[in-house]
Write a structure and sequence with these properties.
Structural class: alpha+beta
Strand order of the largest sheet: 5-6-1-7-8
Mean pLDDT: 91
Largest sheet: 5 strands, mixed
Strand content: 15-25%
CATH superfamily of the largest domain: Reverse transcriptase/Diguanylate cyclase domain
Low-confidence stretches: 346-356
Helix content: 25-40%
Bound molecules: 2'-deoxycytidine-5'-triphosphate, magnesium ion
Shape: globular
CATH class of the largest domain: Alpha Beta
């Protein structure tokens, strides 16, 4: 028998704006908008709930926010403070589980299946987390409690701000039947529009479709939609330590001497690495190439930048590093690239043996 997991999703309320309100009490009760200044070409990073009443939201051009809410307080972001506050939030979360997956500065999943405190109740644990965050950091968080990531994340948004919502295993399938497809994990605007054209508006409509039919229309993602429609999501909470580096390498089927072929392979690898960094909101400062020659002699060449690596100069750097090796003159059996000096980007602009429903 498989026991459902107990997952909590925590999402801080109006995160940057709440930190600003906390640190400047005169802002209390006023609309606060953090991000680009009104006369700039910047965008809103976030707005507090007072400002949201005027229609202001994240990613809106600051000039447009100004038209909607000219009397708001406009603040430049203080990323250092948000990063430090985020670290403190994550430190609190780790007291409740060893299995914590941070998604961004203000959001994380916890798997609390193994936490026997609070009568083993995930709901009581979520309450205790919220209490600790208010008491220690003077900030509010919203919590969602459920048996998988998909539903826990939806639940945390149900009663924002300062919310706590629970979707129990017995209620999940019904809940999903009534859920608009736009709110499903992994369904973006384009897929939502395509589904609507096919008459799929909410979970119940998806259930009328066979997995095969969904795969036919949406490719591999169709398998995923079929699972979600049943309220299922098998993804585990991934507890990852901060990685030190990220890399790729390959051994050629036969040794290569041609410089351009090797350069091409390195470019392919770095493109993959840069894409991974972007997805995880990381920046890297050092790039290292590794070459193993046909006789197994190995060479590495590396360069570190004060500014984070970017797509523009990374390619020329790799070419430059490669020119410092004997590639072109000696056969090569393996090439690799690694980036290191990782930091999280600030510009997101970021089994219980016995399971009982009633103590969820
Ligand atoms: N953020 C950003 N640009 C975006 C979205 C978010 O810079 N387009 C930053 C500012 C937010 C923080 O990330 O404060 C967290 O994002 P959320 O989406 O969780 O939004 P908030 O925490 O601000 O509000 P909510 O109460 O809706 O969670
Ligand atoms: Mg938030």
């Amino acid at each position: 028998m498989i026991y459902p997991r107990k997952i909590i999703h925590i999402d801080m309320d109006a995160f940057y704006a709440s930190v600003e309100e906390r640190d400047n009490p005169e802002l209390k009760g006023r609309p606060v908008i953090v991000g680009g200044l009104p006369n700039s070409r910047g965008v809103v990073a976030t707005a507090n709930y007072e400002a949201r009443r005027y229609g202001v939201h994240s990613a809106m051009p600051a000039a447009q926010a100004y038209r909607l809410c000219p009397f708001a307080e406009y603040l430049r972001p203080r990323f250092d403070v948000y990063r430090e506050t985020s670290r403190q939030v994550m430190e609190i979360l780790h007291r409740f589980s060893d299995c914590v997956e941070a998604l961004s500065l203000d959001e994380a999943y916890l798997d609390v299946s193994g936490n026997m405190d609070y009568q083993g109740s995930a709901t009581l644990i979520a309450r205790a987390i919220k209490d600790a965050i208010i008491k220690e950091l003077c900030l509010t968080a919203s919590a969602g409690v459920s048996y998988n990531k998909f539903l826990a994340k939806i639940a945390s948004g149900l009663n924002k701000p300062d919310g706590l919502a629970v979707i129990r295993p017995k209620d999940g399938p019904d809940f999903v039947r009534n859920l608009p497809v736009g709110q499903f994990h992994g369904i973006g605007k384009a897929t939502e529009a395509k589904m609507k054209k096919l008459g799929i508006h909410q979970g119940a409509d998806l259930l009328n479709w066979s997995q095969n039919a969904l795969v036919l229309h949406f490719g591999k993602a169709g398998y995923w939609y079929a699972l979600l429609a049943k309220g299922e999501d098998p993804r585990p909470v991934r507890h990852h330590r901060q990685r030190q580096s990220l890399g790729h390498e390959i051994t050629f089927a036969h040794d290569i001497t041609d410089m351009e072929t090797i350069l091409e392979e390195l470019m392919r690898q770095i493109d993959k690495i840069m894409a991974k960094l972007a997805v995880r909101n990381w920046l890297a400062h050092t790039v290292t190439i590794k070459i193993k020659y046909g006789d197994f002699e190995q060479a590495t060449r590396s360069k570190t930048f004060r500014q984070a690596l970017n797509q523009k100069h990374i390619r020329s750097t790799i070419r430059e590093l490669l020119q410092k090796t004997k590639v072109g003159n000696r056969p090569v059996r393996l090439v690799g690239v690694t980036v290191s000096g990782l930091e999280e980007t600030s510009a997101m602009l970021l089994q219980t043996p016995l399971w009982q429903d009633r103590i969820f």
